[in-house]
Amino acid sequence: MNPQxxxxxxxxxxxxxxxxxxxxxxxxxGPQHSGTWTVVAYIGDIEHGxxxxxxxxxxxxxxxxxxMVALGLNVD
Length: 76
Known about the structure:
Layout (H helix, E strand, L loop, with lengths): L6 H11 L4 E8 L6 E8 L2 E8 L2 H15 L6
Antiparallel strand pairs: 1-2, 2-3
């Protein structure tokens, strides 16, 4: 993953251009001060990417990255 790239924004643009519905399912587990976020990216009703991190934003970026890879999109 390139830390300078905004995968969430790129995936959203891809979905909008294709008339697709992009949604994210977010869950938090563990203690409030040191828990873990898991985010799943769906296009339509199909899971395309999943990310886990200590903050929601990073988990969403990771899920978006994996969704782009699954869709065969450029992630360089």
